[in-house]
Design a protein that fits this description.
single chain, about 375 residues, alpha+beta, paralog of FGE (formylglycine-generating enzyme), 2 domains, 4-stranded antiparallel sheet, 4-stranded mixed sheet, 4 helices, globular, disordered N terminus
């Protein structure tokens, strides 16, 4: 509202008007009070739409902490993500994040955190499920493979002894026999003491099986990005405009020279217990960093060129030009291995992909559920 001068007390008022409220007749005061009250009510109605479901204006993390935006309600460890329309993608990312396009989604429930080891263990104990990493690979699926490698296991990050550059990822990824969700680094490691850490070495098939058992499903890529943004409009990070808040990035990512040294400035060299970093505007934790999260969609780099505008489900099949013969599913959110020089997957618009039969030491998931 404009800072208008009060005609009763304004010393610059036109001559002939009263100098103080005591000079105004009672009837006039009553009329003024009624008009003022009506003005206040009308003003509230005019202002209220600005505090409704519209997306907040672009602001920095320093002036717009995520806790101020929490509008969802919680039940059974899930947060309500309200229906709405947002702009999906980014002009400051990779080519597969284009073109920008509007997406409208119905409301849905989403797990507050990534599925933890203790939650996944309950699923395994209840169903007897065996993850892909715990199964012996079929030689027919891996023609020409070394028989010594056709044993149950998974892919583990291991820092190289010397700097290999950033082009040869085989220098830090190793297939480790015996590695799985129970043994994240391989034989000799365990999840004891890591019950609250996200379950890793979970392939897409494993995550989908858990979701079905829990009466949920995996999120679509559009649902994931919309929820990750937490109500912020086209900002580069889930917490605002700037990467660091008070000199720190509010997410579990890589600090130091990748892939040789993680200084663990954020307190963690690998996965962190869920919920250790501030939630986003919808009350969701670790939507940036910690572990990548599986989505329901098949991956195609040009998926946005023909994307549906209402509740999109993604392409009907997959194509990755880097590995044309290997179908991929979308993963989102980045991990503790993401750094500025190698991977900025902690941006809400960033897209990545992985083979659905592959588990990794930095990949997990969370679930969603339709409105009742």
């Amino acid at each position: 509202m404009k800072n208008e001068k009060n005609p009763v007390t304004d010393p610059n008022r036109p001559s002939g008007r009263p100098r103080s409220p005591h000079d105004v007749p009672p009837k006039t005061i009553a009329i003024i009070a009624i008009v003022a009250a009506l003005g206040i009510v009308l003003g509230m109605f005019l202002i209220m739409p600005h505090y409704g479901p519209r997306e907040p204006r672009r602001r920095s993390a320093l002036s717009h902490p995520a806790s101020m935006l929490t509008v969802g309600r919680e039940t059974n460890g899930m947060m309500w993500i309200p229906s709405g329309t947002f702009i999906m993608g980014s002009t400051n990312g990779q080519p597969d994040e284009l073109p920008l396009h509007p997406v409208t989604l119905d409301g849905f429930w989403m797990d507050k955190t990534e599925v933890t080891n203790e939650q996944f263990q309950k699923f395994v104990e209840a169903t007897g499920y065996v993850t892909i990493a715990e199964r012996k690979p079929d030689p027919k699926d891996f023609p020409g493979a070394d028989p010594a490698m056709l044993v149950p296991g998974s892919v583990v990050f291991r820092p190289p002894a010397e700097d290999p550059g950033l082009e040869n990822h085989y220098a830090w990824w190793k297939y480790v026999p015996g590695a799985n969700w129970r043994h994240p680094e391989g034989p000799g490691s365990s999840i004891e003491g890591r019950e609250k850490h996200p379950a890793v070495h979970v392939a897409w098939e494993d995550a989908a099986a858990y979701a079905k058992w829990a009466g949920k499903r995996l999120p679509t890529e559009a649902e994931w990005e919309y929820a990750a943004r937490g109500g912020l409009h086209q900002l580069p990070y889930i917490w605002g405009d700037v990467k660091e808040v008070n000199g720190r990035t509010p997410a579990n990512i890589w600090q130091g020279k990748f892939p040789l040294e993680n200084t663990a400035q954020d307190g963690f060299k690998a996965t962190a217990p869920v919920g250790r970093f501030p939630p986003n505007g919808y009350g969701l934790y670790d939507m940036a960093g910690n572990v990548w999260e599986w989505c329901a969609d098949w991956y195609r780099p040009n998926a946005y060129q023909s994307a549906e505008k209402l509740n999109p489900k993604g392409p009907s099949d997959s194509f990755d030009p880097n590995e044309p013969n290997m179908p991929k599913r979308v993963i989102r959110g980045g991990s503790y291995l993401c750094s500025d020089v190698y991977c900025t997957g902690y941006r809400p618009s960033a897209r990545m992909k992985s083979a659905p039969d592959t588990g990794l030491s930095h990949t997990g998931f969370r679930c969603v559920k339709n409105a009742l």
